Amino acid sequence: MTAVDSSGDGARRRGGAQQIPRPTSFTTSEDVPWPADSVWTMDSLVAAVSADVAPVLPLFPDSRLSAVLVLLAPGVDGPEVLLTRRSMSLTNHRGEISFPGGRVDPDESPREAALREAYEEVGLDPVLPRVIGELTHLNTIVSRSYIVPIVATLESPVGLVAQTGEVDRVLWTPIAELTVPGTYRTEHWGTPPLDRALHFFELDDETVWGATAHMLVELLVPGGGGQRAG
To answer: Cα 206 from chain centroid?
Structure first.
């Protein structure tokens, strides 16, 4: 994992220091949704990404339209994906790993918003990415957001650093690191029939979960993400 950390905290431990708000009742499974012999390339990751612009269909009437940039680039160990860590000083989703992104302004498209947010958050030149298309749009329950994931590629990783106090770490994370045995698991929060499944990637010093992990699973297993995330 190539990372730029501006938090001042050099400590490293499995899964990182993020506090996961788990309920009192949950179960865990380490079964992965992809074949054990899977090999990912840039071409295979984007092959199933839809180039069509899907209609915006929020689940909740008060949903806030957002867009994120799922950015891929070739690396030494295969494809890498750009992730960021939200600052611990934020009120919502503090310390969580996410894709660059944010609210869509009234005068812009989700694609334009994703590229703008990536520029504002990590300094990515918006002319560099080649936009491929969209992953399945998803609704988040807690933040009442309707998220449009925009998938794009770069010819090679570029050096990026946090440009705002909302981001305290920028990470180019190899897909090989996300899929190494023992990294992925599913947790079912609550009790049936009201339980819900959440995806987790426990890296050596960070945990990717929630909507971000949900989108990563769809990228790795087209159609495997579903429609809703925590």
So the answer is: 13
Q: DSSP class of residue 35?
A: -
| Residue 124 CA neighbour count, 13 Å, CB half | 32
Amino acid sitting at position 110: P
- Neighbouring C-alpha atoms within 13 Å toward the C-beta of 7: 20
Cβ distance 84 to 70 under 8 Å? no
Task: Provide the 8-state DSSP code for 1.
Answer: -
The whole-angstrom distance between residue 23's C-alpha and the CA centroid of its chain comes to 22
171 or 165, which is more confident: 171
Q: Which fold has domain 2-6+36-176?
A: Nucleoside Triphosphate Pyrophosphohydrolase (3.90.79)
Largest CA-CA distance found in the chain, in angstroms, rounded: 47
Global pTM exceeds 0.70: yes
